[in-house]
Amino acid sequence: MIADLKKKSIQEILEFLVEEEERLDRFLARSYPDFSRSYLQRLIEEGYVLVENQVITKPSKRLKPGEKVLLLVPEPEPLEILPENIPIRVVYEDAHLLVIVKPCGMVVHPSPGYTTGTLVNALLYHVKDLSSIGGVERPGIVHRLDKDTMGLMVVAKSDQVHRSLAEQFKERKVFKLYRAIVQGIVSWEHKVVESSIGRHPIDRKKFAIVEGGKYAKSEFFVKERFPKHNATLLEVRLHTGRTHQIRVHVSALGHPILGDRTYGFKPASVSKEILELMGNCHMLLSYKLGFFHPADNKWLEFEVEDVEPFSKVLNYLRAS
Asked: Which of 74, 102, 125 is the last residue of a domain?
């Protein structure tokens, strides 16, 4: 069936397995958040989605558990990236770089279906100069956070600064601490996870612990337990920076991050009040970031805790 499709060049074929009854467009938007729901709806209507090897062109198609969904990802179209007056929370800025707080729900850089409302759109409006190493689609972007993760990021204003920061990330000189609210009551106090991480062999939207992947090391510390709510607050130190690293490692430990259905979070495990407070966010916060300033080599360190909805959920857990 795929061979019969007369489409423009296909960049990648992603396979998903349906676990519960759901609309096709909602299932894909949740399973593959790199694309917006409106863009996925367009791909469905244009014949780029198959269910059980049959092309489906109705976004409202109801899926059944056990069905296999294929998403044919076409070659991206050239993007026109425009400045947008979107507020940015800046915690530090000088002539060389800035440190910002990325909110939950904001995509870092434009991609198919996310041509507006991204962090890059906002940066182009508020910052006069940005490094060009990331190309026109990723000016200033040295590293990224997932769409539904929130917290601190550093942005480079020049290519020289970008190279210096990128080298620090590569050499693991950057200090990164996260806070994660996970499902279940963690039995241990401290845990180090070392593994190799790569694309999941079957579910291509996910990463997994696999042979031949990239080395990944995460260190976990229990900060608070909330038995009444079946949840635990962890502090996480990243020693490497692989895609979805924290999400993969805590899931492998049996304690997925609240809100992260891709890696095993079960909505029924928490109360409706917590679900409402979380919205569509993962309870994962990049709350501390440290690095050497590229201009004078002085150590800079930043910390932020009052980021919603993470802070709202944590306050609720502590108060009830």
From this structure: 74
pLDDT for 133: 75
Domain with 8, as residue range(s), is 2-74
Instruction: Determine if residue 39 is left, alpha or beta; phi over 0 gives left, psi from -120 to 50 gives alpha, anything else beta.
Output: alpha
Query: Based on the domain organization, do 66 and 124 belong to the same domain?
Result: no
User: What's residue 203's pLDDT?
Assistant: 74
What percent of the chain is modeled with pLDDT above 90? Answer: 72
pLDDT at 3: 44
* CATH number of the domain to which 111 belongs: 3.30.2350.10
Q: Tell me: pLDDT of 125 over 80.
A: yes
* Residue 209: closest CA among 255, 149, 239, 249: 249
Is there a domain that residue 57 lies in? Answer: yes
Helix (H, G, I), strand (E, B) or coil at 166: helix
Residue with the bigger pLDDT between 33 and 237: it is 237
Cα–Cα dist 20/248, whole Å? 22
Examine residue 309 and say whether the peptide bond preceding it is cis (omega within 30 degrees of 0). yes
Cα separation values, 210 from 204, 215, 233, Å:
13, 10, 27
Confidence band, pLDDT 50/70/90 cuts, at residue 52:
very high
**What's the CATH code of the domain at 27?**
3.10.290.10
- Residue 208 located in a structural domain: yes
Residues recognised as catalytic: 146
Q: Tokens representing 30? A: 């949740």
**Residues ≥6 apart with Cβ < 8 Å to 90:** 98, 99, 100
147 vs 30, 103, 105, 129, 264, CA distance in Å? 11, 9, 5, 24, 18
96 in the same domain as 63: no
Cα 216 from Cα 229, distance rounded (Å): 30
Strands 284-292, 150-156: parallel, antiparallel or unpaired by DSSP? Answer: parallel
